[in-house]
Amino acid sequence: MDSSENKQANSKDGNPVYSTTDTSKVNLSETEWKKILPEEVYYIARQKGTEAPWTSKYEKSFETGTYYCAVCGNALFKSDTKFESGCGWPSFYEPISKGSIIYIPDNSHGMARTEVQCGRCKSHLGHVFDDGPPPTHLRYCINGVVLDFQKAKEAEKKYSGKK
Ligand SMILES: [Zn+2]
Predict the structure, then answer these.
(1) How far is the CA of 18 from the centre of ligand 1 (A)?
(2) How many angstroms separate the alpha carbon of residue 86 from the centre of ligand 1?
C-alpha cells in the first residue's frame, strides 16, 4: 500500500464510520461528527458550508477512478461522469447508483435549488442543477472537501460486475 498517498485523506484518521464496503446507514449526533471530522469537512458536510470556488484539487483532476464520500466512504461518482463545468467545483452528471445520493429541496438564500446529500451518512455534498451535459443533463456541483478519490486500480475491483 502506498502510505504517502493515504496521508492526504486525513478525514479517515480517527473516523470509525469510514468504510468503502459497509453500506449500512450512518447516524451520528452532530457532537460526535464534530469530534471525528476535520474542521473543514465538518463545516461543509454537517453545517452545509460551501468551499471557495476553484480551490478543490479535484476540480481540474480527470484521473480515472471513483469518488467517495470523505465522511463515510460511500461511493458517489465515477470519474467518467465528471466533466468540466467551469463553475469552480468538481462537477458530475450522474451518481454511481440511485441510492448513493439523497435529494433535498433547498430554498435558502432566496433560490430554489436541490441539495444533494450522501445516501449513507446524510452529509451535505453540494447541489444538483439541470444544466448539465447529456445523457442526464444534470450537473452535480460538489464540494471537493467532502470527496475522497481512489484511482481506478483499487476502485475497479470493488465495482467490477456491478452495474
Ligand atoms: Zn457519506
Answers:
(1) 8
(2) 25
Contacts for 33 with CB less than 8 Å, ≥ 6 apart: 42, 45, 46, 71
Model pTM score: 0.86
Distance 72 CA to ligand 1 centre (A): 4
Q: Which residue has the higher pLDDT, 157 or 149?
A: 149
Q: What is the CATH number of the domain that holds 127?
A: 2.170.150.20
Mean pLDDT confidence for 26-35: 95
Three-state SS at 72: coil
Domain count, the chain: 1
Asked if residue 63 belongs to a domain, the reply is: yes
Residue 32 within a domain: yes
Compute the residue count for the chain.
163
Active site residue 121: no
**Residues of the domain holding 32:** 10-154
